[in-house]
């Protein structure tokens, strides 16, 4: 089977790449010989992560973007096109999550609900749309949406987040139907509860332990646990796989 190390060098754009899952993915794709674009609202952190990639011998650039803003996304696509000639692999990772307060859905302020949908749903829509012309022209593209195991788990007190990530799965399926004829695949990855350097104030150690107890593999999940599946979906080895949702949560849920 083909793997990412044996595939041609691609241009990989990762949103939300300044920290957490996105940062680890960026480093892994750089290490595999790909050109990586680290796109994030926090340009300073994204640049620091890009510098780490370069220091390790990789090719990387940082670009500021607000995925919920059409003009900002357009400017990002233009700059990446000028620098790297377009994007082959898009990983829609940016999302509002860690800063969210766990609370019953009837207590979620409307403005918070709308902000989550704007970033988590409209963001992938805008980024994909902006980078699509180049993929169509080249007859190749890999779009990977980051959904969440919270959807299949039906996790309570995160209705705004869970709803947004369920929408991403629907987006994945419909986009796959529309883009298959152009040589573009669209898949989703559903991580479980991933521990990163970003703290979540409303998640207690007891909550984390309960999640681990749900899993078949009894340990906490790290961003590194997602590297393999992301590289596979970005590779030629997944060329005949599209419209799928892959859950990587240590077996907490089964479909």
Task: Explain what the structure shows.
Strand 2 (35-40), helix 2 (43-55) and strand 3 (59-64) form a beta-alpha-beta unit. With 255 residues, the protein is an alpha/beta fold. It has helices at residues 20-31, 43-55, 70-84, 110-138, 150-153, 159-179, 205-214, 227-234; strands at residues 11-15, 35-40, 59-64, 89-92, 141-146, 184-191, 245-248. It is built from eight helices and seven strands, in the order E-H-E-H-E-H-E-H-E-H-H-E-H-H-E. Helix 3 packs parallel to helix 4 (110-138) and helix 4 (110-138) packs parallel to helix 6 (159-179).
Weakly predicted, low-confidence segments: 1-5
Strand content is 15-25%
Global outline:
globular
Supply the CATH class: Alpha Beta
Major β-sheet strand ordering: 3-2-1-4-5-6-7
* N-C termini distance: 25 Å
The gyration radius over C-alpha positions equals 17 Å
State the gist of this model:
By secondary structure, the protein is an alpha/beta fold. 44% of the residues lie in helices and 15% in strands. It has a single domain, classed as Rossmann fold (3-Layer(aba) Sandwich), CATH 3.40.50.720.
Label this structure with key terms:
255 residues, alpha/beta, Rossmann fold, 7-stranded parallel β-sheet, 44% helix, 15% strand, disordered N terminus
What's the SSE blueprint?
Elements: E1 11-15, H1 20-31, E2 35-40, H2 43-55, E3 59-64, H3 70-84, E4 89-92, H4 110-138, E5 141-146, H5 150-153, H6 159-179, E6 184-191, H7 205-214, H8 227-234, E7 245-248
Parallel strand pairs: 1-2, 1-4, 2-3, 4-5, 5-6, 6-7
Helix pairs in contact: 1-2, 3-4, 4-6
